């Protein structure tokens, strides 16, 4: 394929192929988001727990998710992590991505989300919560946009406003970031930024 062929056949626009034909209600919910909150295990990771011989835990994060979170923040949407477990790799990844709101060891994620909303002077309708399993159900019910990853527990998926195509730890978080940017009219500018 020569250069002229490549220019004659540009890749499809994000709105034409990726996240196309989304319900109006979903886009309205995503347009209102000022805070996107994510679970870790099973959402930012694939849910598997890896332990070394020394007992230390390691986690694997997807680079696509990381860039999505950075671009979300660059476009004025705050990002938070709320997780029931405590893990040093989570703190390291959050620091790398400049995520200021990191809450580990949270047995009551809904209460944590409510306190965060109050601290940021935001309403529940301005928050998205993304999760994969039963501890995420209560904060999802509070949030204006509830998202379940593709491999979420069925009870969670049934309560979600939207379910990603990708599994947790495999690009699901990026889908959510792209959805919010699309709904807020920033997707095309983001796409053009990288050309």
Automatic annotation (TrEMBL):
Q: Which CDD domains does the protein's record reference?
A: HAD_KDO-like
Write the Enzyme Commission number(s) for this entry: 3.1.3.45
At the top level, the lineage of the source is Bacteria
GO molecular function terms noted in the UniProt entry: hydrolase activity
The alphabetical list of record keywords is:
Hydrolase, Lipopolysaccharide biosynthesis, Magnesium, Metal-binding
> Which Pfam family, any one of them, does this sequence belong to?
Hydrolase_3
The record's catalysed reaction(s) read:
3-deoxy-alpha-D-manno-2-octulosonate-8-phosphate + H2O = 3-deoxy-alpha-D-manno-oct-2-ulosonate + phosphate
As cofactor, the record names:
Mg(2+)
- Kinase: is it a keyword of this entry? no
Q: Which residues form a coiled coil?
A: none
What role is this protein assigned?
Answer: Catalyzes the hydrolysis of 3-deoxy-D-manno-octulosonate 8-phosphate (KDO 8-P) to 3-deoxy-D-manno-octulosonate (KDO) and inorganic phosphate.
Question: Quaternary form?
Answer: Homotetramer.
Regarding protein family, the annotation reads: Belongs to the KdsC family.
Q: What is this protein called?
A: 3-deoxy-D-manno-octulosonate 8-phosphate phosphatase KdsC
Organism for this UniProt entry: Rhodanobacter caeni
